[in-house]
Every structure is written in C-alpha cells, then in structure tokens.
Specification:
Radius of gyration: 16 Å
Structural class: alpha+beta
Oligomer: single chain
Largest sheet: 3 strands, antiparallel
Strand order of the largest sheet: 1-3-6
Length: 156
Amino acid sequence: MSIPPPDFSFTTSVERPERLLDWCDKYVDHPAAGPIFWKALFEEWAGFDRINQIAFGFYMEMFDDWPFAKVMAKLPESVIVYCGMPNGEPPRHCWTLDINVAKNFAAGHRGTVAGDPVVWRAEICPQWDAALYITERNEEELVLREVPEKYERIEC
C-alpha cells in the first residue's frame, strides 16, 4: 500500500515544517515513509521557518534510510561549522559554514530581533554527522543528524 507525500499547498513558511511533522506522525510506522520524508525534507527545508529542530531530529533518527551519502562525500572529511542562536540558547541541528551567517541569525531572523546572541563552533565530519547540505539562500547550511557532543561558544 502506498502513501501520499506531504501536501504543502497553500502553506506559509511557518506552516510547512509543521505540515511535514504532522505527516510524519501519521506515517511513522509505514515502510515507505522514510524515502518520502527525506525527499520532502530536502526539497522544502530552505522554505521552512520556525523549525522544531528537536522533532525533526527525532524523525531523522526514525527514518534511517538516509539517501544523501553521495552529496556529503563531496564535502571535506572535516569541516568547521557555526550555529547562531538567539537569547543564549544552546545549539540545535542547523549549522552553517559561514560564521557571518551564524552571527546574523543569532541577532535575529527574518524580521525578529533577539537579545543575547550566541554563536557556537564545532568540528564535524559531514559524511557521518550531516543529514542535509543546503546551498540555497546564499549560504551553505548543514542540518545535522544530532547536535554535536563537543562545541564551543564564540563571542559575537
């Protein structure tokens, strides 16, 4: 039995990630759900806002049939990544190769202004640690499968 892909019609950038999470909740146990999840995540991620990164981290682990090994193999074996967070929050799953992008994100994002910006720095192996590599929106974003165990705070 096949399942339909998530429907993102008539949704905003804030509603799209929630729509995908709702779809995941419904089909998490279906054997065909993994490939559909990864395809939708890759195609839609750059258009998501206010992402529940903890929930997406859960589904990245649940759907372990990850299809992007060839994409990650094009990256160096080890890279330095940065995660900008507002209000002194700890890092999550979204990181960038550009410290300036992280600093801008930490200070506020798409019209929001944040206090206590913080930038986190980590060294990762993209082939093992990253779930997605997105080059849209004038940045190089890595969505990690898990928050790195080791990271350090960089002064903004």
